[in-house]
């Protein structure tokens, strides 16, 4: 499989803090395995509290945990970083690692779009929607989100460990 990798930083806009120093990681065509294999790979690399479904169609973020999204089926356009952020197209076999605080929104998807989501160490997560009253609390919580000890797919030798030092 011909995989490519990109990373993106997003600025704090006063509503969506994004992450002050960790980039969002985008692995295009990162996997070519069944859902069961992906589930096992994520668990082996300590990404658990797994779920399957879609991505919300409103800007939101998690301030207490980082998140991985693996596209199992279909395709979608996501906006990352809040309303002034960056649109990316994702499709089956792509993977996103979204740092705590980084806003994400589904702008449109194929009918069969499905992702597998997970969190480092099975961490629980919160849901914030860019309301001004959430902002100050989120700024304190984001740096406290536990750092993963492994890349969700590549384990101890993936780009996450190189870029999230």
Please state the CA-atom Rg, rounded to the nearest Å. Answer: 14 Å
Given the structure, what is the number of helices? Answer: 3
* DSSP strand count: 9
Low-pLDDT residue intervals, each spanning 5 or more residues: none
The largest β sheet comes out as:
6 strands, antiparallel
Q: What's the average pLDDT?
A: 95
Order of helices and strands: EEHEEEEEEEHH
Oligomer description: single chain
The CATH class is identified as: Mainly Beta
CATH-derived architecture: Sandwich
The CATH topology corresponds to Jelly Rolls
What overall form do the CA principal axes indicate? globular
Portion of residues within helices? 10-25%
* N-end to C-end Cα span: 27 Å
Strand line-up across the major sheet? 1-2-7-4-9-3
Classification by helices and strands:
alpha+beta
CATH superfamily: Jelly Rolls
Strand content: 25-35%
Which helices and strands occur, and which strands form pairs?
Blueprint (H helix, E strand, L loop, with lengths): L3 E5 L15 E5 L6 H10 L2 E7 L13 E7 L1 E6 L5 E6 L3 E4 L5 E6 L4 E7 L11 H10 L17 H5 L2
Antiparallel strand pairs: 1-2, 2-7, 3-9, 4-7, 4-9, 5-6, 5-8
Characterise the protein shown here:
With 165 residues, the chain is of the alpha+beta class. It has one domain: Jelly Rolls, CATH 2.60.120.10. Helix content is 15%, strand content 32%. It has three helices and nine strands. It has helices at 35-44, 132-141, 159-163, and strands at 4-8, 24-28, 47-53, 67-73, 75-80, 86-91, 95-98, 104-109, 114-120. It has a six-stranded antiparallel β-sheet with strand order 1-2-7-4-9-3, with helices on one face. It has a three-stranded antiparallel β-sheet with strand order 6-5-8, with no helix packed on it. A hairpin with a 5-residue loop joins strand 5 and strand 6 (86-91). The two termini are 27 Å apart. The mean pLDDT is 95. It comes from Halobacillus locisalis.
């Amino acid at each position: 499989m011909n995989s490519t990798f990109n990373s993106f930083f997003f600025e704090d806009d006063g509503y969506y803090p994004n992450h002050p120093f960790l980039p969002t990681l985008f692995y295009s065509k990162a996997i070519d395995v069944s859902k069961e294999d992906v589930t096992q790979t994520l668990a082996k690399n300590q990404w658990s509290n797994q779920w399957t479904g879609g991505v919300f169609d409103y800007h939101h973020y998690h301030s207490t945990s980082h998140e991985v999204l693996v596209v199992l089926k279909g395709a979608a356009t996501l906006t990352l970083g809040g309303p002034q952020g960056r649109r990316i197209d994702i499709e089956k076999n792509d993977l996103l690692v979204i740092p705590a605080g980084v806003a994400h929104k589904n702008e449109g998807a194929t009918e069969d779009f499905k992702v597998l989501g997970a969190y480092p160490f099975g961490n629980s997560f919160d849901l914030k929607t860019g309301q001004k009253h959430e902002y100050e609390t989120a700024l304190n919580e984001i740096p406290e989100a536990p750092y993963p000890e492994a890349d969700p797919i590549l384990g101890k030798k993936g780009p996450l460990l190189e870029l999230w030092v």
